[in-house]
Amino acid sequence: MKLVAKRLDVVEPSPTLAITAKANQLKASGLDVVGFGAGEPDFDTPTHIKEAAKKAMDQGKTKYTPVSGTVSLKEAIIKKFETENGLKYEKNQIIVGTGGKQVLYNFFMATLNPGDEVIIPAPYWVSYADIVRLAEGTPVIVATDISSGFKITPEQLEKAITPKTKVFIFNSPSNPTGAAYTRSDVEALVKVLEPKDIITVSDDIYEKIIYDGLEFVNPAMISEKMKEKTFVINGVSKAYSMTGWRIGYGAGNPEIVKNMDTMQGQSTSNASSISQAAAEVALSGDQTPVAEMLKAFDTRRKLIVGLLREIPGVECRMPEGAFYAFPYMTGVYEMPGFKRLLAEKKETSYSKLFCDVLLDKYNVAAVPGIAFGDDKAIRLSYALGEKDIEKGVARIKQMVLDLQK
């Protein structure tokens, strides 16, 4: 008797979580490991948000809430969308889940039928394709690269659409590349999408982590017609450093929300009542800490990219958003030492081999680009202190210099 469900044959454990866990294990054993793997801010949750959670507990807000979220949190989400994005929603168009990942999972479980195609630009967040497969959909991967700024073009999108296309995933700023689409970029994609019978999922989780005065724009913000065909997903984890609080939210077609509510009602029910109270204050309260974190991320962004560009064989573009660098290592892969490693280890993924050796011999944790659909790169999170960034990149440089021999 097979104990494991067949549906799990098509998915793998999250590589980012696995690498972070291994790095933490090595740290616990006493090694000085620099961890570039974690996709979460290193700052504490702002004090006024934590105080809101304490107040909620003191007031006895420790019971079940409606499955799709408290009325007051939904009102804060609606106000956020209207004031920050110019988007108007009703309460029956909003759902709150246990993190943005659950909202995304419930969306696909509620909308996909076997064989429905989902267009996913690569590099992509590691969970997109696996969640689609779990929902019995078919991921259609469209490759972008450093030459296009890691952005899908309207021509690529048009070519990928078939009669089976159900959903297009749009993520800006992007994990893993930090690429962010301009208004004109989004308008060009909307020209392709608007006439089609396709749902666009806009993953806006890094919305507030965007640099150089770039305007944040998602497809729903371009036109009312596009808004009706877009499901927006966001959360408080990245902008407010609340990864452990597990609050995400979605907005869109009320029929989709109703069915997501049914899915969630048969799995987790409501998200934590305490976390919902904290998220309400995060969205509606003082935004100063967000600006302060962004300023620190910007300094780190420039630091890590500058240091990476000094390493032979490495090409790194300046990310427009999020807190990741996604350097291309193709020049390194051509070095004699790396070719010897390939022959010795018999590893088919170049980026995985590089990251394995980097952690095992140089005590630096990074995520191989193959996990995001691009084996030419590695992902480095700069959500850590400047001294650690300098130390970690120095070790990467030393490994590359060793590989030149």
From TrEMBL:
One of its GO terms (molecular function) is transaminase activity. It comes from the Bacteria. InterPro entries: Aminotransferase_I/II_large, AspAT/PAT-like, NHTrfase_class1_PyrdxlP-BS, PyrdxlP-dep_Trfase, PyrdxlP-dep_Trfase_major, PyrdxlP-dep_Trfase_small. CDD domains: AAT_like. Its cofactor is pyridoxal 5'-phosphate. Its EC number is 2.6.1.-. Keywords: Aminotransferase, Pyridoxal phosphate, Transferase. Pfam families: Aminotran_1_2 (PF00155). Residues 32-396 form the Aminotransferase class I/classII large domain. Belongs to the class-I pyridoxal-phosphate-dependent aminotransferase family. This is Aminotransferase. It comes from Leptospira bouyouniensis. The lineage of its organism: Bacteria, Pseudomonadati, Spirochaetota, Spirochaetia, Leptospirales.
